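Sat 14:20. Reprocessing the chain from the morning session after the first attempt stalled halfway. Input below, unchanged.
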Amino acid sequence: MDKEKIITELSYKAVRSSGAGGQNVNKVSSKVVLTFDLLNSLALTDEEKERSQKKLKSKLTLDGILILNCDEDRSQVKNKTIITKRFIAIIEKSLIIPKPRKATKIPKAVIEKRLKDKSSTAEIKSNRKKPEL
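Finished this time. Tokens:
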């Protein structure tokens, strides 16, 4: 994955922020919407695209476009840097290959302890019976 190449493929759009804020919210377009076309990206290999598509399935549109919003700050520039960092973190996380899980054996001591406990429980229960005369 080439960060610089991916950043050039991003498209930003400034939108008016929602919610309370008075005149600043009504006048200034400080909210930033980032869109990234994952399927048509040239910065990612086919294998990376496939892996990202599986991991980001819930965040992608039907066309394979990732859309992120940021309206945390009053400054459009700060929101743009925040959303870019967040995007890079999401992409890097989606490209991580998980280590295969190694199956472990049950230790002999654990098996022996279980059998010992089982036999002691059986002995206690057998002692509860009435003796045969």
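Residues 3-94 form a domain with the Double Stranded RNA Binding Domain fold (CATH 3.30.160.20).
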